[in-house]
Design a protein that fits this description.
It contains seven helices and no strands. It has 108 residues and is mainly alpha-helical.
Length: 108
């Protein structure tokens, strides 16, 4: 997990470097970093985000609050917070490993 997080960080740093030098928006690594995040979350047994499917089945806003709906938005925010320096790598890993407890805290 740590090595995959380092890989994401490396790709984002390279992307920022190119953007700064060329003064453009360059998102060549974005799909790869998102897929690596998915691999990390899958590896700890976190369910895949199904909000789009649930909205199609139950409508808006019912699909968002249906008992079978699961969103990975919070986990995505952890990766963003880490990349912005708001949490440490250890905190990110702890959140990921303990995702069930973290999600239960926020769902109460």
């Amino acid at each position: 997990m740590s090595s995959l997080i380092d890989l994401i960080t490396d790709m984002k740093n390279k992307q920022r470097t190119v953007e700064d030098i060329l003064e453009i928006r360059w998102s060549v690594y974005e799909s790869y970093t998102l897929e690596i995040e998915e691999i990390i979350l899958d590896s700890v047994g976190m369910p895949r985000d199904n909000t789009v499917e649930m909205l199609k089945l139950h409508g808006d806003p019912e699909g968002f609050v249906h008992e079978d709906t699961f969103s990975r938005d919070m986990a995505g925010n952890w990766f963003l917070e880490y990349s912005e320096g708001d949490i440490t790598k250890d905190q990110l890993i702890d959140n990921i490993i303990n995702w069930k407890e973290v999600y239960n805290i926020y769902s109460e």
